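Retro notes
What went well: the complex prediction finally ran end to end.
Inputs used:
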Amino acid sequence: MSDLNNLYRQVIMDHYKNPRNKGLVGDANYKKFHVKNPSCGDDITVQTKVADGTIQDVKHDGTGCSICCSSASVMSETLMGKKVTEAEDIIDNYYNMIKGKEYDEDLDMGDAIVYSGVANFPARVKCATVAWQAAEESLKNE
Amino acid sequence: MYKKDFPVLNKGITYLDSGASSLKPSIVMEAMNDYYNNYGVNVHRGVYEISHIATEMYEAARERVAGFINADTEEVVFTRGASSSLNIVASSYGLANVNEGDEIILSELEHHSHLLPWQNVAKVKKAKLVYIPLTKEGRITVDNFKSVLSDKTKVVALTYVSNVMGYVSPLDEIINIAHQNEIVVSVDAAQAAPHKKIDVKKLDCDFLSFSAHKMCGPTGVGVLYGKKELLNSMDPIEFGGDMNDDVGLYDATFKDAPYKFETGTMPIAEVIGFKTAVEYLESIGMDEIQRHEKTLRDYAVEKMLKIDGVKVYNKDSETGILAFNIENVHPHDAASVFDKNGVCLRAGHHCAQPLVNWLGEVATLRASFYIYNTKEDVDKFIESVIEARDFFGQF
Ligand SMILES: Cc1ncc(COP(=O)(O)O)c(C=O)c1O
């Protein structure tokens, strides 16, 4: 597979064109965090609802390139229903994978695994992590 | 033909991001190494031979750079770069001379480095920023400038060449009109100095700022040109070693310009490398550089206009900047196709968010051409444009 096909997998483009869990809700039970990458205009807000240490719901909204927007959608599906501690492990593992560092290939990350190709495009690391950073912050202190 | 002078091009890349920073010819690095290897000591301070040589080389660079823009030697202040120069103008001249209710004329074409220093002046002094309306194409015109000129205008701060669109602003006439109204004009020449002949006496601007690194020179050094009377009337914004005459416990006197604006140890090697860069450009000739860029640009635009699904924002621009997008493809997605093919260009808002907003986009792609680029580079670029369009078109 060429680098480009490896970066832009069908799954990614599908989440880009048909994002899941998109749109924010006006519900005080959600925590919200906004992350912006001013150099390219990626701008993502993530909302998370946690009860009993488990993530009940994840919402996202924003604008950006396909890597950024699709990863928000994939992140929301991946983290939904997980325990906060599990989510933290997944987030760390995801960062390691994106940055080309060693990561646990056996950890269940759902579709997030398809972003492994980003490691070959260091300039795109930021795009692939914006939504995850927003989720990480939103889950803090839960 | 000039490719061989630029070692980075040995990597086989197609470099189309000279608008962000140009590559440097090996003679510039050699001049800097020569300083470090043979007389790498401080200037204006030592009383021994090699310090004297360093001082002479440093001052010779000032003379050479002054000649490059037809300024007097003492009108050239070395700074950290264009951003730093533009900040000195705003923070020294601006804060001292702009008062409550005064107006500062800018344009939406301004780089953040020319916009934010004046935003600060306007906030601190309760002055007003006034923007020249741009034409449909995105240009500044003399008529539109006149339409915002008022008896409250104190300063005009404009870019000479837009870093997004490549348009040359009609500064001759604007400066003329400004001066008839006793208004001071600060010119951002960061994108002009690398590409066209500048004569500050003919242009008659009050301040002119540019960076070495966009014109084959080193990073970390730039120029603030200011008219002698103006520079001498201004207060330094940084205080310290070297810029003073007499220092007491409670008071000090300062040197005349340019020295009062150059405190601390300056980037000496870079200043010396800058001189070599200017000599390199002049050996080719600024007119030849401009002609070469224009030829490449016209060649690129002609090809771009034939490609379906590509939007060119500045097809009639006079300098080597091509602003475009591929329809339905986010610039950062397209950028990865260029990256994979070794084509280096810029994607984003180019430190000119107001202009990119004006275009109605979140970001654009920018290819910029310089002396070392060739038609083969353009061909490679065009292939990547088509590849990006087709690749993302399949989803
Ligand atoms: C028009 C313009 N002004 C100012 C600057 C700032 O230059 P520097 O980053 O060298 O200070 C740039 C560089 O991007 C520019 O293009």
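What we learned: Residues B 81-83, 111, 113-114, 159, 163, 188, 190-191, 211, 213, 351 surround pyridoxal-5'-phosphate (CB under 6 Å).
What to try next: split runs per interface for comparison.
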